Amino acid sequence: MAQDCAVVLLSERLGAVLPLAAVPALRTAAEVYADPAELGFPAPPPVAELLAEAGRGPVVLLTLDAEGPAAAALVRAGAKLIGTPEPRGAGLVEAAQVMHRLRSPGGCPWDAEQTHDSLRQYLLEETYELLEAIEDGDRAALREELGDVLLQVLFHARVAEEDAADPFTIDEVATELVTKLVGRHPHVFAEDGDPAVRDSHTQQQRWEELKQAEKRRQSAVDGVALGQPAVSLAAKLAQRAGRARVPADLMPSGADTGSGLFALAAKAKLAGADPESELRAVARGFAVTLRAAEAAARAAGVDPATLDAAGWHRFWPTEQPSGKAHGDNSTG
């Protein structure tokens, strides 16, 4: 009865974007309706009239709900259901739209008051919470914390739109990232590839070469974030110096505590380890062990606050927890 008709299920995220598969049906349609009518076409008539019309000629119904009365009736009568495939990243579009509404007039008063400076603390907090989720291997927390970090990116980009001197949007942020990723992966995106890239090691070398040329850096340590934690900063500086073939004996190596820590971090990084993650794993393991000792003391009726050296040795676990280190693949 309605074999030549079609129900086009649009994506709520993408709005009125028509799928390519719907074009032939729209070209031959005698009537095009939309449910809801806000999609730009007349609303469908009552179901009985719609089915009668579909029996006389091709009808196309644009809808956001395949279970609605008109859409369901047409599909049952034999109409083709055409979906709208959402491209990878469609959810990012929706997230950006939500952030825009929160920041705009009539949105959230707190969101509207925030600045790049006021948001700094949240960016740090969410980043550390994400790091903890990774270290714990907690997949549910990982998904949530990735979203919280993404929120910070969207928030800062939305605030940047309102800058009087130098505004930019989330689209410009994304475009710049795409340009960087494509430009620094010629072995993937260039038509002739990149013969300099043969494996992950040569790819990292090529990445640094392209980055140096792109940013026109004058120093091997240009671009290193000096505000990062001290151990990771020392490791990054040592890595950059090593790539510049700075002799190891020229790196800090004094008898003071700072020089000794720098030397340890440099040695670990140049050996292929990540000293920041290694140290975090040990520190987190120590916290777990200490809590276990306190729990053992309480179970024995002893207040941990009263423990002396002998008491701590008595309740200290014999097996120490171990942690996993994670590598550094920065894009900066």
Can you give a write-up of this model?
With 332 residues, this protein is mostly helical. The radius of gyration is 30 Å and the shape is elongated. It has helices at 23-28, 47-56, 69-76, 90-103, 109-113, 116-136, 139-160, 170-183, 186-189, 200-215, 230-243, 257-270, 275-299, 309-315, and strands at residues 6-9, 31-35, 59-63, 80-83. β2 (31-35), α2 and β3 (59-63) form a beta-alpha-beta unit. It is built from 14 helices and four strands.
Short description:
This protein is mostly helical. It has helices at 23-28, 47-56, 69-76, 90-103, 109-113, 116-136, 139-160, 170-183, 186-189, 200-215, 230-243, 257-270, 275-299, 309-315; strands spanning 6-9, 31-35, 59-63, 80-83.
Task: List the defining traits of the structure above.
single chain, 332 residues, mainly alpha, 14 helices, 4 strands, disordered C terminus
Mean pLDDT over all positions: 89
Shape from CA axes? elongated
Give the biggest sheet. Answer: 4 strands, parallel
Class by helix and strand content? mainly alpha
Strand elements, count: 4
Q: Work out the radius of gyration.
A: 30 Å
End-to-end gap = 60 Å
- Total of DSSP H or I helical runs spanning 4+ residues: 14
Uncertain segments of ≥5 residues (pLDDT<50)?
A: 325-332
In the sheet with the most strands, the strands line up as 2-3-1-4
Helix content: 40-55%
Strand content: 5-15%
Elements, N to C (H/E): EHEHEHEHHHHHHHHHHH
